[in-house]
Fold this protein.
Amino acid sequence: MATKPFGKVPNGARQQPEPFELHVDEQKLQDMKTLIRLSPVAKDCYENQSWDRGFGVTRDWMLKTKEYWLNEFDWRATESHINSFPNFKTIIKDDDGYEFSVHFTALFSERSDAIPIALFHGWPGSFLEFVPILSLLRQKYTPKTLPYHIIVPSLPGYTLSTPPPLEKNWGISDTARIMHSTLLSLGFSAYVVQGGDIGSYVSRQIAATYPECKAMHLNFCPMPRPDDVPDSSLPVTDVEKEGLERGMKFVQNGRGYGIMHGTRPSTIGHVLSSSPLALLAWIGEKFLAWVDPERPLPLNTYLEDISLYWLTDSYPTSIYTYREPFEVSNVKGYFHGQEALHVAKPTGYSYFKWEIGGPAPKSWVERTGDVVFHRAHERGGHFAALERPGELLEDIEGFVEVAWKNVEK
């Protein structure tokens, strides 16, 4: 397999990852289409007539999307686009004897001073979240001028990486350990992490745990107001107040999916592995509801993601992180608000106005790390890397420029 542009692994790599190209077996693809065609859509009822009622996706949307998925969506085009980037798989051996095949997409630089940056996705996303940013970087730079090594892994249990073991419980700290080991295997003794959604948890765990991680940028940081600071000392802008109000509404009527993930993962895993249309309703709702209401994502964007979940059988192994909030429910401020995960390193925070989870005000996030970069955006929601890739990339580059100057490498 010829080396693709940006595909030359740095000379200092401790082990050589294997180049990888995705090609779903044609029979599996046809089976998915057959199941889409044969799967019924729920009959008419009061609850599924209008999106504005807040009960979830409508019957009309399901019927139209089913038709588009069957007759217009082109998985092979998606596959070809994925394969236009350098993709790799590498074997990571965990301390307790388990082996993980870790997939990642990368843009490697030929510069000796390139800064390694790992971008971590969330749920119900995948490495596909960062493909728009990879495209922008590929347009902006050449392999000789790219100032960074960009690594976009598939987290364990998601799509193209090995799922967690069957014999033991698995959590965010375990995923962070495997991701850290992956970066070390590429020869990086100093690197930056970035993440939204679950990827923000993985980023914080890595930044708080491993000295090789020198800086952290987040675009998701849900947390309660710090107890030790009075309201008068925590300035909150009007935009931030609106965000907190939306966050409260989300807690009241938008997180039922997370409770199911966290308390009955086996049951929902079986349900959503039984039909592509079931998966479409469950994940499609998130892509509809969690974005900037004035800038919805193209239908093709989330059908790519949902198809990848289905074709890799990865939904049941992608929701393990949701158990932790229930297992540590007595800890206030899970995850970002925990004192044990304070990051005494350069921290960046991008605030996107329509973040559904209630984006934390800057003054709150400053209690969790050494915030050296902050930028608020009027557009964009939970899927910032998909919704506003240009703005998020500009923030990441701006943060790295500030943070890396004082990093002790």
Q: What stands out?
A: The radius of gyration is 21 Å. The chain is about 40% helix and 15% strand. Residues 238-253 form the longest helix (16 residues). The domain at 83-248+333-406 is CATH 3.40.50.1820 (Rossmann fold).
